[in-house]
Amino acid sequence: MNVHHHHRQIVNFLSNYKTSGMEILISDEKDRLLDTGGGLLKARSLFDADTPVLLYNVDIITSADINSFILFHEKEKPLVSLMVKDRPTSRYLLFNKNMILCGRENTKTGEKTMIRSASSTQSFGFQGVHIVSPEIFSLIRERGVFPIMQLYLRLGSEHIIKGYETKSDIWFDIGTPEKLKNTTSYLRKHPGIFAKIL
User: What gap in Å lies between CA 8 and CA 14, rounded to an integer?
Assistant: First the structure.
């Protein structure tokens, strides 16, 4: 877990958190928030050298089956697996018929970046859950603060980055106070959803 805002409270809580079968390690970003790409690189020494790393954005709540996602990555063996969904967003990832990442499109700005040629593409929203193979660390040349999607778009022209589509899962983005309030209100009105998420 990487920590920045209220890092002391989080570290104190985790140091007293009792759990079995799970080791909790801290990557300290209290002095400088590194974004997902920089955060992954900084935490490199905490990972097993030969094991894929599951990244789960902290502002995402989903009922998607994580085990199925891991099995997909193990079977397909791409450099990166991205959990995606056919949902409205302003920032779409573009995939070919084999669900290989080909580009990105921002519908607000009109900006479109293609990293692979494709006769046609499918647009999906990124779910904030991804798996990277350990080989990625030897390919990272970025340093300091950088978004991980910037890294994926650079590497995706030469390496396979695959999308894993979820369909029946529940998904919420709680990344702002307003989104958190709306999600909390929705979940209170639909208490049965908690069971699906947990």
Answer: 10
